[in-house]
């Protein structure tokens, strides 16, 4: 038996409980990991509260991320004692996940914990931070350099947003942050933001083309915000879209694409191939400012995860949450 967050479903809906879990709940897998640190992402909020049907098998151990130590392995790539991390692959949705002290998974899904990061730091980054890096890499791959102009980050106080801001600032970009929490201006400036705009400016229906304000954008909220991010992108620029905190719709027109030649990159972290993940984690190990990472991180115990998951969906959590699995 070990402790974890177990999600069940009945006629009344979803129920998440912090409880003792029997190992028989875990599915097949060739690597068993002692989970030392985990985290809460937006999707974990959806799964734990049942607000969206992201969990597709019951009972399900919640948690799309974990970091820990291999206990047992019959996978050729891993040996007992090695430090590993996992993001996505349907873990916490269709395969029992990382919000439990033990996980059993397919060894192909694991990434070696970068030597420069502790398991706690890796989970402070988590799927949110790894997705932020995938977005930054899309901006770079497009050829946008710091001298080309500012980069807009939407949902800047959230997990993906906060880490995107920290990474872009470390890489020398000027960052414009869109947020509903302008009261967090000092926090955002400390992370590296130069200009803050109230998210209401971008959240309502806008014009097909707006004033060219940014060379690129990282959008975590979707809907009109994404449409307005595209409409305000300079000629030849690029937008990396990864989220839907405002909505999953995309009420845009073709105008920014056919008159300004902008490019929209779709970012998926869940099924990204192993080589893409390893490259992103290598970059994170090099480019994350660990002092800034600490300032954007709140640590909780596993027994607090259900309450904090609801806060996260309500937009009350700033930055990232790490979970000490042994507290
Ligand atoms: P968080 O909850 O930490 O952050 C979301 C932020 O979005 C909030 O902090 C808030 O920022 C902003 N926001 C919330 N509600 C609204 C709203 N109604 N309108 C406009 N802005 C809003 O979540 P994450 O950062 O972990 O995830 C962000 C998004 O990215 C989610 O939609 C998530 O599903 C998605 N995601 C996608 C991944 C992928 O692989 N494509 C991987 C990881 C995440 P503020 O207070 O600054 O306004």
TrEMBL record:
Domain Enoyl reductase (ER): 13-323
GO MF: acryloyl-CoA reductase (NADPH) activity
UniProt xrefs under Pfam families: ADH_N, ADH_zinc_N
Entries under SUPFAM superfamilies matching the protein: GroES-like, NAD(P)-binding Rossmann-fold domains
Protein name: Putative quinone oxidoreductase, YhdH/YhfP family
Organism: Formivibrio citricus
Biological classification of the source: Bacteria, Pseudomonadati, Pseudomonadota, Betaproteobacteria, Neisseriales
């Amino acid at each position: 038996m070990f402790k974890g967050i177990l999600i069940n479903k009945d006629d009344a809906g979803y129920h998440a409980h912090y409880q003792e879990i029997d190992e028989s709940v875990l599915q097949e897998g060739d690597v068993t990991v002692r989970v030392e640190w985990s985290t809460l992402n937006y999707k974990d909020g959806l799964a734990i509260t049942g607000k969206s049907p992201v969990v597709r098998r019951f009972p399900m151990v919640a948690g799309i991320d974990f970091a820990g130590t291999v206990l047992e392995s019959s996978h050729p790539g891993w040996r007992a004692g090695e430090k590993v991390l996992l993001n996505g692959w349907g873990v916490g949705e269709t395969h029992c996940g990382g919000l439990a002290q033990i996980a059993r998974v397919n060894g192909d899904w694991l990434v070696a914990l970068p030597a420069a990061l502790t398991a706690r730091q890796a989970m402070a980054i988590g799927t949110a931070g790894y997705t932020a890096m995938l977005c930054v890499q899309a901006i770079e791959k497009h050829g946008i350099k710091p001298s080309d102009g500012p980069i807009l980050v939407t949902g800047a106080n959230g997990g993906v947003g906060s880490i995107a801001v920290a990474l872009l600032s470390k890489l020398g970009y000027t960052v414009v942050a869109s947020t509903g929490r302008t009261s967090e201006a000092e926090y955002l400036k400390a992370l590296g933001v130069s200009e803050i705009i109230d998210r209401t400016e971008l959240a309502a229906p806008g014009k097909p083309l707006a004033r060219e304000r940014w060379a690129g954008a990282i959008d975590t909220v979707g809907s009109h915000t994404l449409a307005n991010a595209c409409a305000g992108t300079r000629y030849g620029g690029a937008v990396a879209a990864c989220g839907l905190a405002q909505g999953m719709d995309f009420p845009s027109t073709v105008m920014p694409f056919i008159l300004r030649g902008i490019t929209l990159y779709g970012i998926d972290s869940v099924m990204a191939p192993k080589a893409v993940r390893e490259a992103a984690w290598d970059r994170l190990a090099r480019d994350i400012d660990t002092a800034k990472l600490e300032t954007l991180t709140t640590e909780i115990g596993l027994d607090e995860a259900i309450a904090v998951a609801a806060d996260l969906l309500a937009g009350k959590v700033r930055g990232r949450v790490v979970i000490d699995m042994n507290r």
